Amino acid sequence: MTSAPPPSSFDAEFSGDLTDDLAFALALADAADAVSMTRFDAPDLEVSTKADSSHVTEADLATERALRERIEAERPDDGIFGEEYGTSGSSERRWIIDPIDGTANYLKGIPMWATLIALAVDGVPRVGVVSQPALGRRWWGATGLGAWTRSADGRQRALRVSTVDDIATSSVSFQSIGQWRDAGREAELDRLTRAVWRDRGYGDAWPFMLLAEGRLELVAEFGVKEYDIAAHVPIIREAGGRVTSFDGEDDLAARSVLATNGILHASFLDLLRRP
């Protein structure tokens, strides 16, 4: 007899209706886009360096403040965990925010950045929105409500991962060689890139959405935080894919992520664990 998954498992049963939460998350994304786009590619953009040597711009801070104010006003009982201003409120229902994922691109005027918004219920990401306003793209999903995208021309369609079932014909994305080297995983990256049909480092949120669209079979990163991952989980899972840590666990705090089309998840884990 198969035991039930633990409550924190991404497979944990959920019977709630997330329709209103998803609508609110999409409204939050609209608000975020309005703030972030006003300063994108501005010649006088204010940029500073955080304690961990990463960059933060005035737009990161302003976008997260706008989202926090909206959540606190309309969902006062919900908690918030944001990249720039930390954690506040309840952990049972928590909005997880990365105001600008891809700050290095943002400050250089490169349009490959996104706002990530997720709602976690009892630690499991149930609602996710990824908004990429500089390219006019958005993706969203929620448990039981499917996964969707809107293109720059306004067309909306459902998302579905690919049906590729052979690693040798798969296309994969990784953040950077340096990231895998810093994690002590250069040998695994070499093994991966030799085994697949095509490998590219598309970077940040976009490859996860390409995976959900059925255009990639694997995306893997190291050094990621909860706010880098949470929004992707419900979108990819509702599109039929799977998201775990590099070790195969359902853990947002593992500092690694391995997302696949689901069909090849076990095969990729076996390949990467091979001595």
From TrEMBL:
<keyword id="KW-0460">Magnesium</keyword>
<keyword id="KW-0378">Hydrolase</keyword>
<keyword id="KW-0479">Metal-binding</keyword>
<dbReference type="InterPro" id="IPR000760">
    <property type="entry name" value="Inositol_monophosphatase-like"/>
</dbReference>
<protein>
    <submittedName>
        <fullName>Histidinol phosphatase</fullName>
    </submittedName>
</protein>
<dbReference type="Pfam" id="PF00459">
    <property type="entry name" value="Inositol_P"/>
</dbReference>
<dbReference type="InterPro" id="IPR020583">
    <property type="entry name" value="Inositol_monoP_metal-BS"/>
</dbReference>
